[in-house]
Amino acid sequence: MNKLSIDDIELKDKRVLVRVDFNVPLDENRNITDDKRITASLPTINKIIKDGGKAILMSHLGRPKGERKPEFSLEPVVKRLSELLNKEIIFSNDCIGDDTKLLINNMQPSDVILLENLRFHKEEEQNDPGFAKALSEFGDIYVNDAFGTAHRAHASTEGITKFISPCVAGYLMEKELDYLGSKLENPGRPYCAILGGVKISGKIDVIKNLLGKVDTLLIGGGMAFTFFKAQGKEIGTSILEKDKIDLAKEILKSIENSSTKLFLPIDVVTADKFSNESAFQTVTAENIPPTQMGLDIGPETVKLFSQQIIGSKTIVWNGPMGVFEFKNFANGTFSVANALKEATDNGSITIVGGGDSAAAIKEAGLEDNVSHVSTGGGASLEFLEGKLLPGVEALTSK
Ligand code: AMP
Predict the structure, then answer these.
(1) Which of 152, 297, 329, 339 maximizes the CB count within 10 A of its CB?
(2) Residue 242 sits in the same domain as residue 165
(3) Based on the domain organization, do 230 and 344 belong to the same domain?
């Protein structure tokens, strides 16, 4: 990594302003239903505590759209974070202002304070320089550990870096950049990418960027049907992006002319209706009945994809192979998760992009059996598209 990291600087007695990603899911009683994002930030927070720095944590939660809305308060995080660190956490009711300043001025070394939701102020998402400057004045050092928002140029992720120095990566950010950056720039080969999900449009830039870089590209999920259509196959009532058929044809042509080998499903699990209760059957990709829709890859495809995955040294996965939210159509997605586990056991590097694939690997109970599960859906996708993330670019270079 060519950016400074938290290991490169002295933290003792310093006010360390940390952008974390505590955008956790909450149930109707405001209980945290998944604390992965909090636990993922603990190594950085613990390092600051251990070194005698003062940790000032700032985050967003949900989309309050610039208004103070109690349902988006970060207060539920305080209790959980306090339990995890076994330490009292000071909570500031606002992320800027005199009261916050006073709380920060009274901090002792190794104290931890969490500021209220940054997005209660519209200036955060507007990347307002005045707001960014006001935030920056609370710290001597800035740490970005919020990979999940690094693709957004907001006041707390990008604007702030113009007013404070040094700006360094936290451990979580470093880990994400190591896996999605360095390890994929110099991959062990064969290098295999698996793409799924419903829309080609969402993954088109990823496909373009991976062409010629990956040795094998496995495409499953709803978007396979637009490729089938582009090949002239009948797809019944399967999901189709009509306006992307020409694009799919173009991609198929570019793949043919590249060093990347493409694998599409050879069989499909189909149903009459988009429902877990619908009767289902397996058909070959050439024989999808006109009244049926494909909701998962079939067992022969599972075999084919698993062979490719297990035979690769570097594997990156983004997007489910079918409607994994329905039990009857989850087999393809969970089988890919299992193949990733096997590849990891064999010493391969396996990386799961955030979002739906991260949810699927968790549901399969295998999130600890792969090399890395990204905490950022959108950010990891933009990384795979070869884009520079503003929150990363803004950090101090080595
Ligand atoms: P995306 O947001 O593009 O990654 O798509 C994720 C969604 O794709 C998941 O919610 C899946 O249920 C859905 N999906 C995957 N395969 C299919 C399919 N064959 N038909 C309809 N939806 C699908």
Answers:
(1) 297
(2) no
(3) yes
Report whether residue 250 contacts ligand 1, using a CB cutoff of 6 Å.
no
Ligand 1 binding pocket includes 197 (Cβ within 6 Å):
yes
Q: How far is the CA of 218 from the centre of ligand 1 (A)?
A: 15
pTM equals 0.91
Spell 330-340 as b/e; 16+ CB within 10 A means b.
bbbbbbbbbbb
Pocket perturbation via mutation, ligand 1, pick of 194, 195, 198 by most ligand atoms within 8 A of CB: 198
Q: Residues 89, 91, 95, 96: what is their CA dihedral angle, to the nearest 10 degrees?
A: -110
At 241 the three-state DSSP class reads coil
Q: Are both 74 and 141 inside the same structural domain?
A: yes
- Domain end point (choices 148, 174, 200): 174
Closest atom of ligand 1 relative to the 296 alpha carbon: 19
What local confidence, expressed as pLDDT, does residue 377 receive? 85
Which residue numbers are catalytic? 37, 199, 355, 378
Q: Are residues 59 and 85 in the same domain?
A: yes
Indicate if 197 and 145 belong to the same structural domain: no
Contacts of 257 (CB under 8 A, 6+ apart): none
Task: Map residue 26 onto helix, strand or coil.
Answer: strand
Q: How many CB atoms lie within 10 A of CB 319?
A: 26
What pLDDT is recorded for position 135? Answer: 98
Residue 324 CA, closest ligand 1 atom number: 12
Task: Write the pLDDT tens digit of every residue in 156-214.
Answer: 999 999 999 999 999 999 999 999 988 998 999 999 999 999 988 889 899 999 999 99
- What span, in angstroms and rounded, lies between the C-alpha atoms of 240 and 198? 9
Domains contained in the chain, number: 2
pLDDT tens for 120-155 read: 999 999 999 999 999 999 999 999 999 999 999 999
80/195 Cα distance (integer angstroms): 35
Q: CATH no. for residue 24?
A: 3.40.50.1260
Which of 174, 206, 223 is the last residue in one of the domains? 174
Residue 390 maps to a domain: no
Residue 354: pLDDT band (50, 70, 90) is confident
In this predicted model, what pLDDT tens digit does every residue of 262-281 receive, in sequence order?
Answer: 999 999 999 999 999 999 99
Domain with 271, as residue range(s), is 187-384
Residue 113, domain member (yes or no): yes
**Euclidean distance between CA atoms 279 and 328, whole angstroms:** 9
Q: Mark whether 221 and 272 lie in a shared domain.
A: yes
